[in-house]
Amino acid sequence: MSTDFQSARVALGARLRELRTEAGLKGKDIAARLGWARSKVSRLENGKQTATAEDLDAWARAAGSPGEVDDLKSRLRGLESQQRSWRRQLAAGQRPVQDRYVVEYHRTTAIRGYEATVIPGLFQTPDYARHLMARNAELMQSVPRDIDAAVQARMKRQEVLYEAGRQFRVLIWEGALHALICPREVMAGQLDRLVGLIGMTTVELGVVPFGVLLRLTPKHGFWIFDEERVVVETINTELQFESADDVALYGRVWDGLNEAAAYGQHAHRLIARARAQLHPA
Questions:
Q1: What are the pLDDT digits (tens) for 109-121?
Q2: Looking at residue 105, what DSSP letter applies?
Q3: What angle do the packed helices 53-62 and 3-22 form, to 10 degrees?
Q4: Is 281 contained in some domain?
Q5: In this structure, what CATH number is given to the domain that contains residue 243?
Q6: Tell me: the pLDDT tens digits for 27-81?
Q7: Is residue 98 domain-shared with residue 207, that is, in the same domain?
Q8: Residue 130 sits in which domain range?
Q9: Does pTM surpass 0.70?
Q10: Do 126 and 186 share a domain, yes or no?
């Protein structure tokens, strides 16, 4: 269990304890009102068990604080959304995950993203995506081999790039242009695809170059959706953060990287340099 997840669960438990004590109730009192074992009350308050939405409804009523239900459930949603295991998500294959992304991107108007090691899924060619997904399936071992269907879903996600009124401001660390996770000819096609995105009305593509003075290190990739939610992918987990402080923090990181990013013809030259190195003279 991640430290962030457990910390959020402990914080939720502490809030439940506050409501109980503010009502002048002991643990045994609220357990009696709810018809629960006293051990459940203790586990919830100490962050050793995750409350359900029904638990929170019942607790607020028993503590005489029904007006706190919305806050408690908001805390629960944040806790539940903070981590999603890739192994669990991919148990049915990669296609369902890609289908979920299609829905999420279609209901989002503005995205700021940054990738340090891979070409973003929004910009991937089918061949590049296929090699990447094959490597991910090998890494996870138990993932069903539905790669062709997953690639089709990823390509469908890219339809949002051509919808008026959307904005995708995406930064790529230059190293991602050189990372070979596929044959050279596939990477060449992928870099050509990036060049074709420069100048699109819905896309602002920046490259953070090697050797540029940075205010902070390149760090890991992340995506900010409508300035309301941040998604971070690690090797084994997808993390989501929805608090205003977390969104603001990642926004500042993006701004810092953006200050050093190259756009337009400069970005084009960096991509062309990476492509030239695929087939040196």
A1: 999 999 999 999 9
A2: H
A3: 20
A4: no
A5: 3.30.870
A6: 999 999 999 999 999 999 998 888 988 999 999 999 999 999 988 887 887 665 5
A7: yes
A8: 84-276
A9: yes
A10: yes
